[in-house]
Amino acid sequence: LGRHKNDDRSTYFEYNGVRFGQETLNVFAGLCAVDTIEHVEMMMKVLREHDQVCTRMGAYKPRTSPYSFQGHGKTCLPYVFDLAGKYGIKVIAMEITHESHLEEIRNALYQTGNATGVMLQIGTRNTQNFELLKIVGRQQTFPVLIKRGFGITLDESLNAAEYLASEGNRKVIFGLRGMKTNMGDPHRNFVDFSHVPVVKRLTRMPVCIDPSHSVGTRAGSPDGILDIMHVTAQGIVAGANMVLVDFHPAPANALVDGPQALLMKELPQFLEDVQIAREAY
Ligand code: PEP
């Protein structure tokens, strides 16, 4: 991915008809966590209406508390993949937290006719789970979005991404999702999107921004522009290649991260802002 002195291969790739590279831009708007089949369908229907072919759908959720909703796991996969096929979704970003999830996803995709593709997500809590990285790196079927570790150096996170490539999988995207600090930030995490060009300079990976987990709240300026929208634009102007962003039909009822979810009716404005920022890049 750019950190091995003898390796200068490109990391551009195409997956299920969608192109990924350091020059492309893909939006993955969707549910942080799958809760009901109705919400999945509402989300995918709206995405279809706005010509979106990618989404995010969380089935396996790594939660800080063991008493919080942990995700529906494999039980939701059949309807998520069925609905993705119905609404023309080509790629779903989905976090896995254990190697067994790979097989569950493979089986469910097969049983639902492989109508959609999955981008495996390694979350910030697993960035240095090296055994999981090696297993995910050994498979070539699915591309991987690896998030920066929220409490380690950038260098350590970039080396974590190399674990995937060193095992054979070079379809890797690097995700910025904010860093933990103890300074009582206005946001859930310290937004690190100024590192987009840095990562693109240091490696050949496409870079994803996750404004939802970085900002963590619907707070905004008095003129009504949400901070999530502001930082999304900043990340895109800085050269981001992918945007992972949470939406929900009823954020108050969301089982995970409701306070940071954008409303479905905000999707058109969000996509328009993405386009404007991209033109400014
Ligand atoms: C997520 O994208 O759902 C998530 C949990 O992100 P992170 O690993 O960045 O916290």
TrEMBL record:
The keyword tRNA processing does not apply. Keywords: Transferase. It comes from the Bacteria. One of its GO terms (molecular function) is transferase activity. Residues 17-275 form the DAHP synthetase I/KDSA domain. Transmembrane segments: none annotated. This is 3-deoxy-D-arabinoheptulosonate-7-phosphate synthase. The chain holds residues 79 to 359 of 372 of the full protein.
